[in-house]
Amino acid sequence: DPCSLNPCLNRGTCENNLDSYVCHCPPLFSGANCEKVTNLCKSRTCVRGQCVIKETEPFYECKCRPPFLPPNCKKATKTCNPNPCQNGGTCKHRRRRKLQCFCPESFRGDLCEIGPSDCYEEDGSNYRGQVSLTEAGDRCVYWNSPLLLSESINAFMENATEAGLGDHSYCRNPDGDEKPWCFYKYKKERLKWGLCDVTPCPPS
């Protein structure tokens, strides 16, 4: 029974076909074993944001930088109204609809989203915090970005959920590196990876 080996990936269903098998793939996936992810971001423009691939219709989403709004990050709210800064942060308007959050003590991040308890233990394999910057200050790419489809580590790999990968750009350590890391963009669409600006937890 060729289907007994579960050859179909990404929740594809297997049907025996004489001495072989056929995989019936869910939407978004294709290929003999449902191993290919369809990149709907190719034909989409996210003006002030980043396009990511989703497993539910319409199978893509624009992740907009505040104050820009979905669906295509073209329109914006008033820069600091509503205030996107979290944890009591103060929002200040900068030029060209850019904003800056001034965070209360012990909070940091673009939107003051990173608190004092956001830290990693051992090699950070279980880190599930919200840091999304490398040590050099590069902004992390979403794990479900189309840029990562050619990488072996992304939100669509096997065991992605267990590794903490998904619809976000937070640093993770899915491969047993020395600490949490992420991919980041350089030279337009090229990728590099870097260790993240995550703090080790104090000894308990």
Automatic annotation (TrEMBL):
GO terms for molecular function: calcium ion binding. It is found in: Cytoplasm; Secreted. Its main location: cytoplasm. Residues 118-201 form the Kringle domain. CDD domains: EGF_CA, KR. It comes from the Eukaryota. GO terms for cellular component: cytoplasm; extracellular region. It holds the Pfam family EGF. Keywords: Calcium, Cytoplasm, Disulfide bond, EGF-like domain, Glycoprotein, Kringle, Repeat, Secreted, Signal. Disulfide bonds join C25-C34, C103-C112. SUPFAM superfamilies: EGF/Laminin, Kringle-like. It comes from Latimeria chalumnae (Coelacanth). SMART domains: EGF, EGF_CA, KR. This is Hyaluronan binding protein 2. Residues 1-35, 76-113 form the EGF-like domain.
